[in-house]
Amino acid sequence: MNNSWVLALKQGDKNAHAFLIEKYSPSLMGYVFSLTNDKASAKDILQNVFMKIWEKRERLAINTSLKSYLFKSAYNEFINHYKKESAIIKLEKKYHESLERIAKDSDDEALEKIMSEIFNEIEKLSPKCKEVFLLSRKDGLTNKEIAQYLNISVKTVEAQISKAFKTLRKNLEVKLYMMLFLLKDCKM
C-alpha cells in the first residue's frame, strides 16, 4: 500500500498527497508537538513537511516505511526550525547589547534625530509589513503571538519581519539600522 501511494504521489496525484496528510497528520502532530510544546510551531513544522514532500515528490526516495520516512522528515524539520529560532534569539541578544552601548554614547538630540529617520522609513513599508514589524518591535509581541493575533502563520510573520529589516537596512545607514532594535524598548 505504501508503495502505491508513493508512486501516485511521484506522478503528481494530489489525492495521494491529501490522503497522506489526512492519514498521518494526527500522529505526526502529536509527535511534533511533543518536541516543540507549541501548537503553532508544530503546525508550521508539519505544514513544511507536507509542502516539501509535495515539492520534491518526483525525487522521493523512500527506503523505509512511509510512516518512518514522515516521522524522520518531521524530526529533521523540527531541528531546522529549532536552529533557526536559536540563531534569531542569539542575533537579537547581540544587537540589543550593541545598541545599549550605542544608546549610552549618543546624546538625546542625536538619538531623537536617528529615531525620527527610522520612523520615517518604517512608514514607507507596505501596510502588512509595517503592521507585523510594529507589533514585534513596538508592542514586543513574539512571532507566535503576532501570528495568532493576525490569524497568519508564524512563517509569514518571520517573512514580513525579515522583509522589513531588509528594506530598512537598505534604506538606512548601519548605525541607524542597529538602532531599530531599540524600538522594542521605546515608546512611539
From TrEMBL:
The keyword Thylakoid does not apply. InterPro entries: RNA_pol_sigma-70-like, RNA_pol_sigma-70_dom, RNA_pol_sigma70_bacteroid, RNA_pol_sigma70_r2, RNA_pol_sigma70_r4_t2, RNA_pol_sigma_r2, RNA_pol_sigma_r3/r4-like, WH-like_DNA-bd_sf. One of its GO terms (biological process) is DNA-templated transcription initiation. Gene3D superfamilies: 1.10.1740.10, Winged helix-like DNA-binding domain superfamily/Winged helix DNA-binding domain (1.10.10.10). Residues 121-168 form the RNA polymerase sigma factor 70 region 4 type domain. SUPFAM superfamilies: Sigma2 domain of RNA polymerase sigma factors, Sigma3 and sigma4 domains of RNA polymerase sigma factors. It comes from the Bacteria. Keywords: Sigma factor, Transcription, Transcription regulation. Residues 20-86 form the RNA polymerase sigma-70 region domain. GO terms for molecular function: DNA binding; sigma factor activity. Belongs to the sigma-70 factor family. ECF subfamily. This is RNA polymerase sigma-70 factor (ECF subfamily). It comes from Leeuwenhoekiella aestuarii.
